[in-house]
Amino acid sequence: MKHLLIAASALAMTAGYAAADITFSGSASAGVATDAGAAWDVYSSANLAVAFAGQTDSGLSFGASFDTSVGEAYALADDDGFSSNDGIFGAPTIFVSGSFGKLSVSHDNFDFFDDTNGGGDVKYEGAFGGFGVGLVSDVDSGDASVSASYTVAGVALSANADTYDLWNVSASYTMGSITATVATDESSNSSVKVAYSANGISASAQYNTSDASVDLSAGYATGPMSVSVSTNTVSNHWSATGSYDLGGGLALEAGTNYTGDMMVGAKMSF
């Protein structure tokens, strides 16, 4: 990650201006992969992210961020995992934050809290003690999404709803290394999940009432090496991945899934 600090004396004379911190960060990946047993092909992609941050004399924080990706990327998926990136910078996100919370603006760029709809232009996030609130608004369509959460003594409650008549609620309790969560939504799709994480071991089991299936996952990390597997007991959709961290932002990775997809490559962070 690279930082460029701009504190020009002429700008410092502007009322309310202190300094601007401009941060560049990047990531890249390259390797070979096959889609459902087809011929092997090469993928190579890179991402550049730029973030600006500043603070007024009164303590308000403000900033902006945007990024772009180029090349041919690959990710294990149910269908073709290859995807082309055109290198065009995405819509920038502009924000102002303070004791009141954080207010962000980005044209048609925010997802609604229902995890289904998107296209929001304005987003508000606030945390007050154990309470959290959120609002996403699509100004031109008039649609909106709201969320609320509360956390105390290991108990976390959350709820969200939007103008598409979608909503969901969840409650979880964490005791040591174990977290239990129950959730439901507007279609009565309910689930019960138990997760464990400690000493490099992670595992979870989630029962879904919609199809009486169980999602199972497990992972193990030791030193630079990590492996993970996941499956669904009804669909039999499964995947397995592994990585080895060489240090300095470079790691080797490999994976396969139930469709016959396989990949071997490297990922980098800067």
Explain what the structure shows:
The chain has 270 residues and is an all-beta fold. The protein has a domain at 1-32 and 47-98. The chain is 1% helix and 67% strand. The protein contains 1 helix and 20 strands. The chain has one helix at 9-12; strands spanning 2-6, 20-34, 41-55, 61-74, 82-86, 93-98, 101-110, 120-128, 131-137, 144-152, 155-162, 167-175, 178-185, 191-198, 201-208, 213-222, 225-232, 238-247, 250-257, 262-269. It has an 18-stranded antiparallel beta barrel. The model is unreliable at 3-17 (pLDDT under 50).
Helix content percent band: under 10%
Q: Which spans have pLDDT < 50 for at least 5 consecutive residues?
A: 3-17
First-last Cα distance: 5 Å
By secondary-structure content and strand pairing, the structural class works out as mainly beta
- Mean pLDDT, rounded to whole units? 91
Please summarize the sheet with the most strands. Answer: 18 strands, antiparallel, barrel
What is the subunit organization of this protein?
single chain
Tally the helices: 1
The string of secondary-structure elements, in order, is EHEEEEEEEEEEEEEEEEEEE
Radius of gyration: 22 Å
Number of strands: 20
Coarse morphology: globular
Beta-strand percentage?
over 45%
